[in-house]
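TA notes, week 10

Several of you asked for a full example with nothing omitted. So below is the full record: structure tokens for the whole chain, then the designed sequence directly under it. When grading your own attempts, check the secondary structure regions first.
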């Protein structure tokens, strides 16, 4: 698995949010920022220091899983350090073995659930996972047919394409409307990049942020 992750992180190193979202050319304010500062068009308008706060949060999360080296990269994309690759491999395998042996054990409280929000377009819905990617990866690899998810409680949990002109970062002028729709459509289809993986766990974690069947988005029921 480490080799799969290493190849991924070497191959996918977006220089901006636009590149992360797959936009070929962008004029939106947020899309030209660092990939670490990405924000979805329908998210709440972030505070000015949101990127710095995200980097600190990543380092804290890694520390809870044994890292004492500070920020070493993010599991969504490269570049990352070799230590981060080993950390992600351990996390994936530990999560996989835990769920395989004991089942998926959710709990109330912080980080007790996989979290997400529903994307809706043309009377169809998919679930966009926002937290719990390692758990989703393991459950997909274990052929779970359904996954319990806590819907986003900090902002609207239903994101409708038909309401795109009212999305917070569109109204605030941070995203051009056409680019906001392109980001939504790619997320709806489960597309983040065009890489593929032989390792099923790596593919589930890295192939798409949408709940996959293989790596395709699943209807929300």
């Amino acid at each position: 698995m480490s080799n799969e992750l290493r190849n991924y992180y070497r191959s996918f190193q977006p220089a901006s949010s636009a590149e992360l979202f797959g936009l070929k050319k962008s004029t939106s304010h947020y899309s030209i920022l660092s990939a670490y500062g990405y924000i979805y068009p329908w998210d709440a308008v972030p505070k000015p220091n949101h990127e710095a706060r995200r980097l600190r949060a990543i380092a804290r999360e890694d520390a809870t899983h044994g890292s004492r080296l500070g920020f070493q990269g993010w599991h969504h994309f490269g570049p990352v350090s070799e230590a981060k690759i080993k950390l992600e491999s351990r996390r994936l395998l530990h999560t996989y073995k835990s769920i395989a042996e004991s089942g998926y054990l959710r709990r109330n409280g912080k980080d007790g659930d996989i979290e997400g929000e529903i994307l809706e377009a043309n009377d169809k819905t998919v679930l966009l996972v926002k937290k719990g990617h390692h758990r989703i990866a393991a459950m997909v690899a274990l052929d779970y047919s359904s996954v319990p998810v806590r819907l986003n409680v900090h902002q609207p949990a239903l994101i409708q394409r038909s309401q795109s002109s009212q999305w917070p970062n569109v109204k605030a002028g941070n995203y051009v409307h056409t680019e906001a729709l392109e980001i939504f459509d790619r997320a709806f289809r489960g597309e983040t990049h065009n890489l593929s993986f032989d390792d099923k766990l790596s593919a589930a974690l890295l192939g798409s942020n949408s709940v996959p069947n293989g790596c395709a988005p699943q209807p929300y029921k």
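The CA atoms of residues 106 and 113 lie 6 Å apart. Use that as a sanity check on your answer.
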